Amino acid sequence: MSRFLRGQDFPGLGVAPGSARVADLVSHLPSRARRRALVLGARIQGAPVSRVNRLSSEDLATWTADQYGPGPYPAVIIGAGSGAAVHLAAALGAPVLPQTYLVPVRARLDPDRPRVAMQAGQDLGRRLVEANPDLSLCHMHDPNQDRAMIVRFAYFRVKRLRLGRTLERFLEQRLAPGATIFILDTTLTWPVSVLGERQRFQFGALGGMNPREYIDGSARLAQHLAEQGSRVRRWEAPATDDTCPEAEWGYDDALSPDIEAVAARCGYTVRRITVEEPEHLSPLVADFYRWRYQRHGLPTDQLLVETYNQWEPYWALRLGVVPFWLQFTARPSYHWLERYLQQTAPYRRIDVNLFSNGLRSVGQVTAEEWRGIAHRHATGSGGTIGVNEAAFPEDVGSTLRYQPALAALPQRYPLPPPASVDELDEFLADTRNIASADGVRIATLQTAAGHSERQDPA
User: Fold this and answer.
1) pTM here?
2) What is the overall mean pLDDT for the chain?
3) Do residues 268 and 448 make contact, with C-beta atoms less than 8 angstroms apart?
């Protein structure tokens, strides 16, 4: 997001010239070699325990603040993760400050022994939260979607419970007078095992399976485990004793009082965007882009569907395409896209990009089906973009191929000026009763004058 605010794309998705060719070479390797490449990547991404022991919440805050320029910014989005929120921030010319951070810890774990994994990370996690009283930690272990990665690192996800001085200064010094702070509140929860104060273990994650299936098992899970060569046909899940904000996507409201206190001191408006799941914001954001394109005399008939962390706000706006972000390539996300396409005005062209997680997980939708939904709903052309369909979901080069695939499209438009918050409100008033507003609540918690009030334009 910080690169977009400087008028640049994100080269991390296309590391260097020719990276798309490298991606194609890697994706054409035999399946076993592609899996080995993923495991190697996991090993490289994981941080050594010694480094995690030294991690502080202010390290995370400083890294975040350093990504952005001095401003002043008219708005900021703080809270849960969501690609749809990234596109909303791009439209508003606003930075995004996440509450949740992934800390990948180098480890050798058995995906099918969650109780052992929980115990393996418990002492390190306890030291991390004891050293950082403004963080909570959830060790997330998902042997379905993350199976290719958790053999080499543990997913520690930390959430900020306090802003801290660095982020307070960011809000005080880099927002324009009268700015708006949007809190993205994703209410999604998940059953957890409580390991200590501010320390939890989450077995499973949002995607193709619900929490009960992780615990109770199913026929399709048994078949999946057999296909993966596992010794088990269901998992021995740790006992759960609480329900908390989902580790990756949920929002912990403990952060909100600090945000509201800064806003009161500085005369900012605080508005809360509430959705159950992060992709539930996508229809509204897509329609906001369409509405703005029409105002600027741009085409409104091209849709770009993005998945997981492969989003690109710069190219969405340069190409004049409407972005629609999905949290994963699983069946619930497929149905969410289908629902939107059935209710909105038709698109002439629909391109779908797919994130590859390294294996065909339970509940995952095939590339053929994704291509089919695009082809079926587009009045002109529809299909996948930047995807090796034959290699998906082991298309390990997809993160290298995505940005070059978008950059190769022929149309170009100047980046439009940022939308004002008043313009967003005008759109919300115009679309109060349309389907894209279903399940999205936008409430004003505090005005610039410091008075509390509530309204619900969406």
Assistant:
1) 0.93
2) 91
3) yes
